[in-house]
Amino acid sequence: MSKISVKTRNEKRRKLAEKYAAKREELKAAGDMLGIQKLPRNSSPTRVRLRCSVTGRGRSVYRKYGVCRNIFRQLALEGKIPGIRKASW
After folding, report:
1. Which of 29, 45, 75, 81 is the most exposed place for a label (fewest CB within 10 A)?
2. CA 77 to CA 85: how far, in whole Å?
3. What are the structural domain ranges in the chain?
């Protein structure tokens, strides 16, 4: 599990990106790159990291399910993800 401070920092970035999304689009349409540079650095959507909703892990997270590969496998084996089961042939 990742530290709470890492999860909180990422959540703060996500909120800032949502807050400045309209302003950023407006500046991009006008071609005002200096205006974009004056916005807070963490308001850029590329700085937001996709994290596992259960553990906070930042790597190998499936976008569709919002969990990392370890938790995905665990939930799939328990039958908690509809339509997913372990392959056997």
Report:
1. 29
2. 7
3. 1-49, 52-89
